[in-house]
Amino acid sequence: MMILKSIKPKYADKIFSGEKKVEFMRVIFARKDIDKIIVYSSHPVQKIIGFFRMESIIESTPTYLWDQFEAVAGISEQNLFKYFQGNENGFALKIGDIRKFRQEIDPWTIDPHFHPPQSFSYLNEGTLLYQALKEKVL
After folding, report:
1. Which residues pair with 47 in a beta bridge?
2. 92: alpha, beta or left, given left = phi > 0 and alpha = psi -120 to 50?
């Protein structure tokens, strides 16, 4: 199963350069069968640029997550704590294999009713976006 995750361009670039090896989330998806994260690079890029396989999910306090992943976080300590502000716990997705698409995908050309997710959205088999992406990621 795949999700579409909105990620700021500066962090998305760090994922695909290999510098950022974890992606942080305040809330985690309810489904347990998620293995691929499709990356939507948010404003100003506004394109789907690639995907990564998720190796595991670590749930803990922001302090623990920072202590564990500081070297591969791809974010400053100040920005991480600002991101998690008001949350006792957070999540770190350990990034496995990454694949950047040769050509970025404009989701509105596939689905004119596309709305970027605030955080993430499930990509169900029946959607236009899933159909267009499945050959690239399966």
Report:
1. 41
2. beta
Residues 6+ apart with CB under 8 A from 1: 31, 33, 34, 35, 36, 122, 123
3-state SS of the chain is CEEEEEECHHHHHHHHHCCCCEEEECCCCCCCCCCEEEEEECCCCCEEEEEEEEEEEEEECHHHHHHHHHHHCCCCHHHHHHHCCCCCCEEEEEEEEEEEEEEEECHHHHCCCCCCCCCEEEECCCCHHHHHHHHHHC
Residue 124 has pLDDT above 90, yes or no: no
**CATH homologous superfamily of domain 2-121?**
Hypothetical protein. (2.30.130.30)
pLDDT 10s digits, 112-123: 999 999 999 999
Please tell me the pTM assigned to this model. 0.93
Separation of alpha carbons 33 and 39, rounded Å: 18
The 10s digit of each residue's pLDDT in 28-83 is 999 999 999 999 999 999 999 999 999 999 999 999 999 999 999 999 999 999 99
Tokens coding 14: 């760090």
